[in-house]
Amino acid sequence: MATINVNELMLAFDSLCVYRNLINDRVIKKLYELGVLVYRKEPGADEFIRKYNEFFFELANSSSIQSLKEHVIKLILFDENPFSRQSEKLPFDSINEILIDAASKDLDRLYYISCITSDVLKEYALENICTCEVEKRFVNSLPAWDFENIRGYEQKKLSHNCEKITDIFTSRSNWGECVKYLSDFYYTNGCGIFARYNAFVWEPAEGEPSLRGIESPDPICLSDFIGYEQERLEVIENTEKFVRGLPANNVLLYGDRGTGKSSTVKAIANEYKDQGLRIIEIPRKYLVDFPAVLRMIKGRNCKFIVFIDDLAFEDSEESYTVLKSVLEGGVENRPDNVLIYATSNRRHLIKEKFSDRAGLRTVDHDDEVRAKDTQQEKLSLSERFGITVIFSSPDKKRFLQIVEGLVAKRGINIDKDRLQREAMRWELMYNGRSARTARQFVDWLEGSENLRK
């Protein structure tokens, strides 16, 4: 007889209580259907082969080629359930003991499920299902799903904290004993999508605005930058206070294009992601959804930077009142775990026309009586940010320092005089002096130098 105990496999599935959501995963659902087919009736070889291949397809088609055990571990880490939600908010010693015990037993059941191999099921089919040599030949030819030893593919990079807890699960055969490690992971990283992703964008999904986790966020880090150290330091120090639970301010980064404002925010989010910092980008056109975003992340243990890039409003737009209300504290206050970081090329975020000022002295009966009040309201939005950091275009000396720093970082060997001549010619021909122009020039230079070799 085969070593598999189909009855025990199905009992493990049906006994899941805390982690019951995992059965709805496409891969696990197909494995469950295969188990039901074998357990509840005498399937034909054709039915077994079809269900087997449906499961294999889903596993091979998952986000990255991985073993069944790796897939189950990731589902555990990123599941949102009563245990993970309590663990996100409370230290392990404060969680209900009944819930801990239930989660621990579920983890042991999931370990058993994750250990089911292709050889075991094929052996079971050969002994209990196949009735002729032709059927046995087809079952023997079914693909194995042990992807652990496959080379030549690139697995998706997990965060440092995810890799640590994954290593703990991978090295153990009694997953129930890992329940405290798992609880600590949730407490640091959050649960559900906030454990799985560190960067999000707010956008419509099937007609309804929602959070979309970004699979491959911009990997830029603080060590990649050359120049603007003082401007960046002010934003870094504010973020460190925020991550540590100290009072911190909303930040407006404004200045000339290409000076690294947006990249600074993204790099800071990457720097502190393992300390529970998450970033949510809200496009300007969806600012009216700001209260919905706040309700979704309120009460979470993670810290959130709500990022608004290239912020500016037309005179006719009313969504700026939503942002102003959030900044200064409306009826629905901004949660303590949320800061707003915005970038803009404009010091005053709402466009003001000369006609607005002319309205202060107009005799037109259709003009506003209190035009001065409207003017001040438009100019006051940027003042609602506690910290304003200015990123100005670099002068010639600073531009060349950025270029030389990037060249040194990349190990490009070039005469200094020639480098400076080429850099100044580039900025005249293209986008003017900025950190972005410097990087674009060095990209071109590196490619040209390698082409000559």
From TrEMBL:
> Which organism was this protein described from?
Acetivibrio straminisolvens JCM 21531
Q: Start and end of every AAA+ ATPase domain?
A: 247-364
- List the top taxonomic levels of the source: Bacteria, Bacillati, Bacillota, Clostridia, Eubacteriales
What domain of life does the native source organism fall in? Bacteria
Q: What is this protein called?
A: ATP/GTP-binding protein
